[in-house]
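Dear Dr. H.,

I hope your travels went smoothly. While you were away I took the liberty of generating a structure for the chain from your last submission, since the lab meeting agenda had it listed for discussion. I wanted you to have the full record in hand beforehand rather than looking at slides cold. The sequence, exactly as received, is reproduced here:
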Amino acid sequence: MNAVIGGGAMDPTIILIAAVALAAGVLIALLIQRRPQGQTDAQVELAGRIAQMAESNAAAQAQLNERLQAQERAVTKAVEDRLADLSKKVGDNLQQNSTTTTETMTKLQERLAVIDAAQKNITELSSQVVGLQDILSNKQARGAFGEVQLQDLVQNVLPPRAYGFQHSLSNGRRADCIIHLPNPPGSIVIDAKCPLEGYRALTKAQDDVARQAAKRKFTTDIATHVNHIAERYILPGETAESALMFLPSEAVYAELHANFVSSVEAAWKKRVWIVSPTTLMATLNTVRAVLKDAQMREQAGLIQQEVGKLLDDVGRLETRAENLQRHLGQTEKDVREILISTGKVTSRGQRIQELELEEQDTEAVIAAGDSKPAIGQN
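The corresponding predicted structure, in token form, is as follows:
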């Protein structure tokens, strides 16, 4: 292997054999040249054998050299094939690793893009939450927020003719929303309220003293809103005997019904029903069913009139069908009589034809009798 890798150098054993053969040949030549005059034939024969052995060794050495060179070429080719195969495998592995790395980097970039988009959405949402907190911290803005939510709920459930926003009443008050219902119960007013200060104070209270103060604040705010709605939006003869107070926060509604039952009962006594977005949605669905039923009742008289007209049309249709049936019966009778007359005409024609045939036969018989010779003539 060292001889092959070293660029085709000869093996030291081959060189030694060649040197020995060469030395033997030189020695034989010298012996032949220096043979004394009295040397025997045996010695000459021995020298010839030694020369033959040297030639044989040289031939064997040449053959061995050729075999070694052939093996050297085979080994060299095998090594080159192995190196080429190894280079190809290394190249394929590098290409596959490069492709895999590229795909991984592409997916990583896509995920990073998604993360960036999510981060942007989170940032926008954070700014919106901050803006919502700013809105809820201001009473007027908070009231507008509740009115917008109330409008969205009503518009999504009821038909346009069934409600009105910022409706003016006879006492000069303007209702956030009014639902037009037939009497009874009449039109119902919905007013949006959000007692958020007392609720926040209640959730942030650290001790009993602060908690009791927050409870009093929350109870007072609820009672004030209920009294205002009962005084301003329940008008005999104009509105229903009750009204709705809309709380745009489910958390405030849950806290009120869980821990302030007395405030809820006081609102009931004032005929003010407190609703949240969820309960208002259910109430509006009930109102829509009531409106549909009232509309059906309003249309009942018109439906009855149309049904009466329909019955009249059916009666006229029945009379005309009977007339048509009579006409058809008369037509059938006339056709039957026509067929009878046609039969009679046909019978008379046949009899007339038979008479004509009989006359022709008689004339033929007479003509035949005249043509016969008398007896005794000729």
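Two observations you may find useful: Residues 183 and 240 are 8 Å apart (CA to CA). The beta strands are 163-168, 174-179, 188-192, 243-246, 272-275.

With kind regards,
E. W.
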